[in-house]
Design a protein that fits this description.
With 171 residues, this protein is mainly α. The protein contains six helices and no strands. Helix 2 runs antiparallel to helix 6 (104-170) and helix 3 (63-89) runs antiparallel to helix 6. The longest helix is centred in the C-terminal third of the chain and has 67 residues, at 104-170.
């Protein structure tokens, strides 16, 4: 009877140490913190990869904009090649006299501007997203660590009570 009373007063729901709420919560928080640490490492690695790609001048755009950018870059390349072929055959003065050909250099400039704007916009989106993901991962890790630190004290108190419980059981 004294043992049952002690169990009830100290939230000892099971004779198995790991099955009690305080220790189960501690275990759950530890597992969550381990996962959050992994997620934070992955988010930091992704952010660093994005920054490295940007610093190397690579096109960094969201997945859903890659096809559009590729199409625009192909059109630009095709126009450049077309102008290069025309330059081999004709002078620019002659091209300027041909209504359908004189606009090619302007079209190239427009496409170059569009490509540059899309790259900058995409780069900004991807970088911002990576920074936000990393910040969120850091925040999750901090919060879980604080919860774990707080709960360790409760678990320590429980362990002490559980030890007393075990002593009572043997008496």
């Amino acid at each position: 009877i004294e043992l049952d009373k002690f169990r009830k007063n100290n939230d000892i729901s099971s004779t198995g140490r790991e099955e009690n709420e305080a220790l189960a919560r501690l275990k759950g928080l530890t597992e969550s913190l381990n996962k959050a640490n992994e997620d934070e490492i992955k988010a930091r690695a992704h952010l660093n990869a994005v920054k490295t790609s940007i610093s190397r001048g690579k096109a960094v755009v969201p997945e859903d904009e890659k096809a559009s950018l590729t199409d625009l870059e192909k059109r630009l390349q095709d126009m450049r090649e077309k102008l290069a072929e025309l330059d081999k055959k004709f002078t620019r003065d002659y091209l300027d006299l041909q209504p359908d050909l004189k606009s090619i250099p302007e079209q190239i400039k427009t496409l170059e501007t569009d490509v540059q704007h899309r790259r900058q916009h995409g780069q900004s989106l991807v970088l911002n997203d990576a920074e936000m993901s990393y910040a969120a991962a850091q925040q999750t890790t901090r919060e879980l660590r604080a919860q774990l630190d707080e709960h360790k004290q409760q678990a320590s108190a429980f362990t002490s009570k559980f030890t007393q419980h075990e002593a009572l059981k043997t008496d």
